[in-house]
Design a protein that fits this description.
Layout: H1 10-26, H2 28-37, H3 44-50, H4 69-82, H5 84-104, H6 107-119, E1 124-127, E2 143-147, E3 150-161, E4 168-174, E5 184-190, E6 196-201, E7 212-223, E8 227-228, H7 234-241, H8 244-270, E9 272-273, E10 276-277, H9 282-310, H10 316-341, H11 343-346, H12 351-358, H13 361-364, H14 369-379
Parallel strand pairs: 1-4
Antiparallel strand pairs: 2-3, 3-7, 4-5, 5-8, 6-7, 9-10
Helix pairs in contact: 1-4, 4-5, 4-8, 4-9, 5-6, 5-8, 8-9, 8-10, 8-12, 9-10, 10-12, 10-14
The chain binds flavin-adenine dinucleotide.
Flavin-adenine dinucleotide (FAD) is lined by residues 92, 126-129, 134-135, 159-161, 204, 207, 361, 364-365, 368, 370.
Amino acid sequence: MAAPDFYLSDRQRALQQALRDFVAREITPLAAASDATEHFPVELFPRLGALGYLGLRFPEEYGGAGGSNLDYALLCEELAYGSGGIALGIYVHMALACSALLAFGSDALKQEWLVPALRGDKIGAWGFAEAGAGSDAASIATRAVMSGDGYVLNGTKLFITNAPIADFLVVVASTAPDQGLKGLSLFLVPRDTPGFRVGATLSKLGVRASEMAELVFEDCRVPREYLLGREHRGFLDALRTLTLGRIASAAFATGIARAALDATVEHARTRVQFGQPIGSFQAVRFGIVDMAMQIEAARLLCHRAAMAADRNLPHGREASMAKLFATEACTRITERALHYHGATGFMADSPVQRWYRDCKVFEFGEGSSELQREMIAREIGL
Ligand SMILES: Cc1cc2nc3c(=O)[nH]c(=O)nc-3n(C[C@H](O)[C@H](O)[C@H](O)COP(=O)(O)OP(=O)(O)OC[C@H]3O[C@@H](n4cnc5c(N)ncnc54)[C@H](O)[C@@H]3O)c2cc1C
C-alpha cells in the first residue's frame, strides 16, 4: 500500500482524482489513434476549458481557477499519463502562449485573446525556434522592424507545436539584431494576419498527437499594441516569468514513466514463461522496483520545485534538477518497460513503444540536459 502524498491538501487530492478520471475517460482512449494519424483532437480544448483545467493556474478575473504551481504539476502528470503528445499540445497553448498573454498582454488583449483561450475557444502556439536558433536564442533571425504605428515581421520559425491548429501565435523576433538576447521582443500574431502563413507540416518520431509546422512571416504587419511586454526585453522577461516549463517537463516525464510502470507491473504479473510469471524472476522484479523508485524521486523533485515557486522562494536550481532527473529517468524507464514487455511491447499497436518514443523530446525541449547541468553547476558554485 503506497503512502499518500501527505503534503497534498484534500482539494488537491480531489483534483488529482478528478484528473485521473477525466484522462482515463477522454484522453487515453484517443492516444493511439492520435499518434497514428498525427492528429490533435481539437475538441478536447473546449472540454478542458469547461472543466477549468486550461485556466487552472490563471487568475479568476480572466476565467481561470487561481490554482497553484503544485496544482499545475498534478495536471501535467495526469495529462501525460494519458498521452504525451496530447499533453504537449495542451501545454504549449496553456503554459507558453496563454502565460505570455497573461504576463505581458494589455487588458484589452487579455479580454480578446486570453479569456477565450482559457475557455478553449482559441488555440495558441509559441514561435521561438528557427533553423539556426534552438538552444542558442541569441541567433534568432526573424526580424520585427518598427514601421508607422506597428511592426513588420519577416522570418521563418521551425518545429512549432500547434502551428497547424492555432488561432494565434506568440512569436519571438529580434527588434535589435546587434543586441543578441537583449534585442528579442515578443509579439502576438493572430492567424489571419496578412503576411503570415503556416508553412510545411512536420512529421515526428514521438509526441505525434501534437501537430507541428513551420511559421512563415513575409512583411507581416502587426499593430504596436501586439508587442507583448518591453521592446528588446520581452524574451528575457519571458524567460524569467515563464519558469514553469521545467516543472511541467518534469511532471510530463513523471506521467509517461508512471504509465509505462503500471503497464509493466501488469505485464510482469500476467506473462508466464518457464511456468511462472516473469515478475517472479528476481532480475525482472528488481528492474521494475528501480523504475518505481525513480518515478517517486522524480515526482518529489518536481513537487518540491512547484511548492518553492508557490511560496515565492528561489526555485531555479530545484526546477532544473527536477527537469533533468525526471526526463532522463523517463527515458531509462520507458526503455526498461519495452525490454520487459519483449516483442509484445515492440508491436505498433502497443502503447509501450509509444511511451518509448514520446519521452525523448522532454530531454532536449525547454532547455536540454546539458543546459540544465550548466545552470545547476552555476547554482552550486562551479
Ligand atoms: C516535439 C517538439 C516540439 C517542439 N515545439 C516547439 C514549439 O512549440 N515552439 C518552439 O519554438 N520550438 C519548439 N521545438 C523546438 C525546440 O525549441 C528545440 O528543439 C530546442 O530549443 C532545442 O533546440 P534544437 O533542437 O535546435 O537543438 P540544438 O540547440 O541544436 O542542440 C543539439 C544538441 O547540442 C547540445 N547543445 C547545444 N548547445 C550546447 C551547449 N552550450 N553546451 C552543451 N551542449 C549544447 C544540446 O544539448 C543538444 O543535445 C520543438 C521541438 C520538438 C522536437
